Amino acid sequence: GVNYNFIVMRRALVEHYLQGPHAIIASAGVRNASKTYNIERFMGLVLLERQWRNLRMPVTCFITADQLNDRSTWKKIKSSGARGGLLFKYAAQMDEAYRNLEVWERRRAWIG
């Protein structure tokens, strides 16, 4: 999700941010209504329509599912044999989280 935005967002903007999805649907509508939107794509549309910047934060963890046959709204849940059966949806996200873990293990401090 995009909840991390609240960590760095000025208080005055939060109300507009929370009203963004409703405003898009109620007033302008979704331009490409024939397209299927999951929450990430829809919020991307809201951010674009409102001309808001959304900076990417590094992946430090991911929670996908409890079991392979759990319901998924977007990608099929997979199991990583190389990671002891770890469940994931996006290999790139899983790999990035493990790379970030390696960086953290080398120097356990917040830098940057």
Q: Give the averaged pLDDT, no decimals.
A: 80
Characterize the biggest β-sheet: 2 strands, antiparallel
Number of helices: 4
Question: Distance N terminus to C terminus?
Answer: 23 Å
Name the beta content range.
5-15%
Q: In words, what does this structure look like?
A:
- The radius of gyration is 17 Å and the shape is flat.
- Strands 1-2 form a two-stranded antiparallel sheet.
- With 112 residues, it is mainly alpha-helical.
- 44% of the residues lie in helices and 5% in strands.
Brief synopsis:
The chain has 112 residues and is mainly alpha-helical.
Give descriptors for this structure:
mainly alpha; two-stranded antiparallel ribbon
Helix-strand layout with pairing:
Layout: H1 5-8, H2 11-28, H3 39-49, E1 78-80, E2 86-88, H4 91-106
Antiparallel strand pairs: 1-2
